[in-house]
Amino acid sequence: MIRVEFLGPIGKKPLEIDAATLREVSDLLQQNEALADWLPKCAVALNDMMINDLDTPLKAGDKITILPPVCGG
Length: 73
Hints:
Blueprint: E1 2-6, E2 15-17, H1 22-30, H2 33-38, E3 43-46, E4 49-51, E5 63-67
Parallel strand pairs: 1-5
Antiparallel strand pairs: 1-2, 3-4, 3-5
């Protein structure tokens, strides 16, 4: 199982899903209309490392974090 966490204003509880690649996670999350609006704006971390290659393989126990854009000073 892969854990997917959503930070900040996305306001969604973590999910536990089965996926072999980041692309499979993206495809699954795109099915949720509320998330589909956020995903193009967000960064993604895999086990606390920023990543953008959707073909990245995943393994059981991996943690994906969806990071929305933020402002601050």
